[in-house]
Design a protein that fits this description.
The protein has 3 helices and 2 strands. It has 76 residues and is of the alpha+beta class. A two-stranded antiparallel ribbon has the order 1-2. Strand 1 and strand 2 form a beta hairpin. The radius of gyration is 19 Å and the shape is elongated.
Length: 76
C-alpha cells in the first residue's frame, strides 16, 4: 500500500510500480466508505477470452445451470 495525493488540478498520479503492474486505464468505483480503482485491460475482449479459456461449456449451458441453481435456491 502506498499513499498518493491529488495535485492542484485534481489529478492523482499512481506510483510507477503500480502502473507497470496494473496498467494505465481504470474504472473508478465509489463505495460507501471510499473509492476503488479497478484496472481495465487494454483489450477487454482478449482479457475475457484468456480468463475463460479453460471453460468447456457454452454460454447457453452456463446460463441454464445458473437458472437451475437460482430456482433451487428460491425453493422451487
Amino acid at each position: 500500500m502506498s499513499d498518493a495525493r491529488l495535485d492542484d488540478r485534481g489529478r492523482l498520479t499512481l506510483p510507477k510500480e503500480m502502473r507497470e503492474r496494473y496498467g494505465e486505464h481504470y474504472h473508478i468505483v465509489q463505495l460507501h466508505d471510499g473509492i476503488k480503482l479497478i484496472p481495465v485491460a487494454d483489450d477487454p475482449l482478449d482479457a475475457l477470452r484468456e480468463e475463460f479459456a479453460d471453460v468447456e461449456k457454452t454460454a447457453s449451458e452456463l446460463r441454464e445451470e445458473a437458472r437451475e441453481a437460482a430456482l433451487d435456491e428460491a425453493g422451487r
